[in-house]
Amino acid sequence: MTPYVGGMHSITSPWHSHYCFSFVWAVQLACRFSFHSYLCLFQNGAVPGEPVKKDENSRRGNWGNQIEFVLTSVGYAVGLGNVWRFPYLCYRNGGGAFMFPYFIMLVFCGIPLFFLELSFGQFTSLGCLGVWKVSPMFKGVGYGMMVVSTYIGIYYNVVICIAFYYFFMSMTNLLPWTYCNNPWNTPDCTGVLGTSRANTTFANVSAVMSGLTEIVNRTKRTSPSEEYWRNYVLNISDGIGNFGEVRLPILGCLAVSWVVVFLCLIRGVKSSGKVVYFTATFPYVVLTILFIRGITLEGAVSGIKYYLTPQWEKILDAKVWGDAASQIFYSLGCAWGGLITMASYNKFHNNCFRDSIIISVTNCGTSVYAGFVIFSILGFMAHHLGVDVSEVADHGPGLAFVAYPEALTLLPISPLWSLLFFFMLILLGLGTQFCLLETLVTAVVDEIGTDWIIKNKTYVTLGVAIIGFLLGVPLTTQAGIYWLLLMDNYAASFSLVVISCIMCICIMYVYGHKNYFKDVEMMLGFPPPIFFRICWRFVSPFIITFILIFTVIQYKPITYNDYVYPSWSLVIGFAMALSSVICIPIYALFKIAVSEGSTFLEVRCVLPKKLSSAP
C-alpha cells in the first residue's frame, strides 16, 4: 500500500501547527460526539490532516487494509479440518515422517495453486463467475465452484451450530457428558469418572481409573460422551432414510449461526474485514492456552510421541503421499471460489505473491500446532484409561464431539476448558463460512452487475443466508448426521480436484501462459518466479491428476460407525459430486450453441480473450 505523501515541511513551518490543530480538533470531536465518530477519522488508515484513502474500485469496494485480507484468507484456509483431520492423518501415516511428503506437496502444489487463484481474482477484480471472461466457454468452472461452495456452506454451518450447542451446554458446573446416570445412557455406558455424581476430587481420579481399567480392556466400552452425542444431541435414527423429527435445540443453534454469519457480512468485506481481527486471531490464543494446559498433564508426552514418532518406512507408501497431497489441497480451500473472491477485493498492485506464501505457511503451521494440542490431551486420557493412544485417537466429528470432550472431563474446572475448546471450533468454522457466503453473494452481484444490486448487496446476503438456513434444516433431523457425512464425503471431494485441474489448464494453455505471466508482471511489478511458472504449467497439474487418480483408487463406500449406507444414498452422493463438474461441459455446449459462427473455430467464445485489469 503506497503511503500518502503530502510533501516535505519544516517542523517549524505553519503546516506543523495546522497538523497539530487538526489532531487536537479530532480528539475534541471524539470526546464530544462518540467513539465511533473518532474511528471514522482514521478510516482506511488515514490520519487527521490527510485525505481519507478511497477505494480503487468504487463500485465493488476494497479491503480497508491489507491486514484484513490476510486475516480473512487465514480464517478461510484455517478451518475445522486443521484441528480434527490433520493430526489424525499425521499419526496414521507415519507421524513425523508424514511431515516430509506434506511439506513437499505444500511447496509444489499448495502454494503455487494458492498464488494462481489469488492473482487470478486480484487482476480481474471479479468473483468466481466474472473472472471467466478469460475464456467464456469455461465459465462453467465458475458455476461449478458456486455449486461446491453451496454444498459446503450448507453442511459446514450445521457443524458450527453443533459447536454452538456444546458451547451453550458447557455453561454449567458439571458437563452433561461426564457420567453415565442420565436418562439417555444405556447399560453399556462406562464413564472414566465412574457412575456417581459425588464430588470426586481430581486427586482420587486415578484410583477410580485403576478399577475401571480391567473393564475397559476386557470389553469395548461406550463412553458417556459418545452416548450423549448419539442419544441426546443427535437422537440418531436407524438409517439415512428415517428422518424422524427435527432436533429443535440444534435448529435453534443453526438459526443463531446463520444470524451471526449474516451480521458479520452485512456490509460485505467492509464489515467482515473488521470481524476477522478477532475470529482469525483468537483461535490461536485458545490453542496456546490448551497447549500449555495439555503439556503439563500426565501422559501428555506419550500422546505427542504417538503424534510425531517417525515411521520412515511409510514414506515409500503411495497412500501416504496421496493423503498428504489431498490434505494440502483441501485444507487450503483451492477450487472453492473463495480465494478468487477474497482476492478480487484487493487493490490492483497488492503483492499477492507474498500473501500466498504467508497464508499457506500459516495454514500448515496451524495444522502441526493443533496436533500438539489434540494429542497432548488424548495422551493424558489414554494414560488414565490404561490403554494405547490409538484406542482414543479419532478424527472428524468423533474427535470434536466425543473423544476430546470426554478427555476434558478429566481436567479440573472442566467446563472452562470445554467452553474454550468449542469457542475455538466456532471461530474456526465462522472464518471459513464467511468466505463461503461471500463467494456466493459476490458471484451473484458481479453477474447481475447493475447499480441497484451493488447498492443493495445486503439484501442478496440476507437472501442467501435464509436459503442456506432452510436447506440446512434437514440436517438437523434425527438422520441429519448421515446426510452431513454424505455431503462431506461426496459433494466436495474429487469434484474439487477436477475443477482445479481444468482451471489450471485453461489459464495456462487456453488463455496462454505467456499472456498470464505478462498480466501478473503488470500487476505485481515483477514476473512470477520461474519455479511458479514451471509448477503452474507442469508440476501442479500432474500432482492434481495424481490426487484424482489416488482418490478414485482409494475410494470406499461411506460408513458411519457400524452403519453401512444403502445404495440409493450413494447414488445421491455421486449425483452431488457430479452436479458441480457437469456444469463445465453443459455451459461450454450452451455457449457454443448460442454463439455466432458456422464452424467450431469461428465460434468466438472458444477463443481466449485478453484480460482487462481492474483499474
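^ that was protein a. below is b, sequence first then the C-alpha cells
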Amino acid sequence: MSRSIVRQSKFRHVFGQGAKAEQGYDDIRVSKVTWDSSFCAVNPKFLAVIVESSGGGAFLVLPLSNAGRVDKNYPLVVGHSGPVLDIDWCPHNDNILASCSEDTTAMYFCVIFVFGSKRPEHNMSGKKKSNMDRHIIDAKVTDTIVLLDEMRRSNGTFSELKSVYLDLYQALYLTRNISIRLRKSHVWQIPDHTPCRPISEPIVVLEGHSKRVGIIKWHPTARNILLTAGSDNLIIIWNVGTGESLITMDEHPDLIYNVSWNYNGSLFCTSCKDRRIRVCDPRKNEVLAERLAPHEGIRPMRAIFTREGNIFTTGFTRMSQRELGLWDPTHFEEPIALLELDTSNGVLLPFYDPDTNIVYLSGKGDSSIRYFEITEEPPYVHYISTYSSKEPQRGMGFMPKRGVDVTKCEIARLYKLHERKCEPIMMTVPRKSDLFQDDLYPDTAGPEPALEPEEWLEGRDADPLLVSMREGYVPPKSRELKVAKKNVLDSRPATRRSMSVVDGSSLPPQLLEKLVEEIQSLKATVLSQEKRICDLENKLSKYTNGTV
C-alpha cells in the first residue's frame, strides 16, 4: 500500500494575518513615483514611508507605537528637492536612515541650454573645441554665472545678457558633460521623540552621482559603510562617518535594477537592464561572475544573496510569465531551480529572512504575498503558502528579525502599503506551547557592527554579531552618528558644554576663585540645614512620645 510522503518542515504551516484596523497606520499619502522601489523601510523602533509632497521629495517617519490615524500636519522629513526614490534604515543604529532622490545642484536657468539641444562640435567662433583645463572651464562657468546674476539685478540690456548667456553656453559644453548637476544621497538622524516641525537638515549629504540615485543599501556588518547606485550606471560605496566615497564601480553599461549584499558583506550581486546578473567584489573593483539572461524575458529582474551564498532571482519568461530561480554563482551555466509562477506585469520584490531561509515575494499591484522555503534538498525552492487580501499593494516593508513578537511565534512581519494606509501583516507558526520556541528563533543579527570601515576596506570579513531572541529583543539607547569629516563639522555650530565638563585650567583665575567660594558657601548652607533638620526631628519625637 503506497503512502504519500509529506515534506518535513517546521515552517510548513506558516500563515499570514493582517493586523486589526486600530493597529494599522491610516491617512498616509503614499508616493506615486513610477519607480520599482518598496517605498517603505521599517526597524524595531520606526516606520518610514515615502509620501507625496509638493515642492520636493519627502518621507514620513513614525514610531511603531503611533498606530491609528496620522495627523495631516505630522512633521515630515523634507530635505530633498526632488522625489525620494529609496530609503534604508541603518542595521547598526535604529535612529539613522539613508535616503536618495533626484536632487540636483544645477542652477535653474542652465536647463535652458540642456533641453532638446545637441552637443555642438564647435564653439561659438566656429573653431574646434580646445583642450582647456577642466578647472579653468569650471572657474569660467562660475564667474559667468556670478556676472549674469549681477547683470540681472542691475537690469542689464538684452545684448549684454545675450553675450553672457553665450559665454555660459560655450563653457558648459566645453566640459563634455554637464557636471554641474550632482545628485545627492542624505543620511538622517531621527529623534526618539515626535518632532515639533519638519526635519530638513541631514547629518551627512553625499554628492557624487550625475543622474538620479535610485538604490541605497547599508553594509550588513561594517559600521558606516553605505552603497548607492544611480542612473549614471555607477555604484559608489561611502564611508558615512567621513562623508567621503571609498570605491566607485563603473562595470555596468546600463541601468541597475537592484543591489544585494551577501551575508558577511564581502560581495554584492546586481541585476541590470542589459539582462545580466553580476557578482562583484567591491574592494577589488571587479566582476567575479556574471550570467546573461537568467530569465528570458526583457522585463526588470531582481537578485538577492541567500545565506549559503546562492543567488535567488525573480524575473519574466519570454511569454511574460513571472518566474523565480536559484543559482550557484560559481556555476552560473545551469540553475539550481527554476519555477514559473503566473502571468502579471508587476515586478516581484523578494524579502529574504536568513534565519529561516524563507523568501517572501510581493509584487506591486498584487493583492497577495507568496512565500517559499529554500533548502538543500530537491526541488530546493519549496512553495509554502500565499497570503491574500482584497486591496493591491503599492509597496512593502520588511521588519528585521529582532523586531518580531516571539511570544506569539511570529517569524516575520511585513508592512503593506495601500493607497492611503499601511497595514502590518504577521507571519506566524502555530504552536500550542507558550514557552520560547528555540527551533523558530536561532540567534539573529544584532545592532552592533562586526567591523570598522578601515578593517573592511583593508580586506577583513566577518559575519554579523548575533544576539539571542529568548527574552525578546530590547532596543538599545539611541546613539549619535559620529561624523569625522572636518568640513562637515566646521559647518556646524559648536556644541554647548555644561560647566560641569569644562576643564578648570581654561577658566580665568578670578572666575575660578569665585566658583570655589560659592561651592564652599553652598556646603556650609547644606551643613547648617542638616543640623536644623536633626534638631527639629528630635523635638518632634519628644512630642510624639509624650515626654514634653
